[in-house]
Amino acid sequence: MSLDLSHQRILVTGGSRGIGAATVRLLTGLGAKVAFTYLSAEQAALDLQADLQAQGRAVLAIRADQRSRADAQVAVAAVEAAWGGLDAFVGNAGIWAATPAELEDEGVLLDILETNVTGLFRWNAEVIPALRRAGGGSIVLLSSTAGQRGEARHGAYAASKGAVISLVKSLAPELGPDRIRVNAVAPGWVDTDMSAAALRADAEQRKRIEAAFPLGHIPGAEDLAGPVAFLLSPWAAAITGEVLNVNGGTVLCG
């Protein structure tokens, strides 16, 4: 039995690049109608939309800021207007930046928390009523190994991703009676634009990082898209409140 998402209408935040773009490509390839948001990477978003539309896939690019509840309202309304409802949400947009203990720049701290935590609350507040209107659905939020074990000099990012895990475990029992499943995917290092400075600019550092992977390689964005699709699918119909670790074996936690 093949994985078929042709009856799903899905909203993905941060879908123009990296894990988000790979997820949009896979979900539309599995038949889903997918809207995705972007903020600064307009050309990448428009190129992705044009490429997928040329292949006959149902896709919609929406400029939106994950920090903004008003933008969330607009995005959800756009999906419902285009396809008659919303069945799933992938909260992928996020910021990774250093916040050493000395906290030299509180602006970075606030940007991370506002985007990775508060923003998700705002988007969920708009998404959840839409899922209820559709009779149920699924939410997948992107966490990180940093939220499970911490990350030196990146305390705000680690705290934000730990908050995502706690949010998932809070929403799952709250929304279960509405037939809404809530899960997280927790990657570690992923070879994308976000990690390019650490993984692509310094060959020796990359070797050190790769040495920590029992599988011997750093996952790419496509390696994360499959687990997201699985959690959205009927194959995961009995899974909620869980964290699916996709980290190449670098963090072995339940």
From TrEMBL:
<dbReference type="InterPro" id="IPR002347">
    <property type="entry name" value="SDR_fam"/>
</dbReference>
<comment type="similarity">
    <text>Belongs to the short-chain dehydrogenases/reductases (SDR) family.</text>
</comment>
<protein>
    <submittedName>
        <fullName>Beta-ketoacyl-ACP reductase</fullName>
    </submittedName>
</protein>
<dbReference type="Pfam" id="PF13561">
    <property type="entry name" value="adh_short_C2"/>
</dbReference>
<dbReference type="InterPro" id="IPR036291">
    <property type="entry name" value="NAD(P)-bd_dom_sf"/>
</dbReference>
<dbReference type="InterPro" id="IPR050259">
    <property type="entry name" value="SDR"/>
</dbReference>
<dbReference type="InterPro" id="IPR020904">
    <property type="entry name" value="Sc_DH/Rdtase_CS"/>
</dbReference>
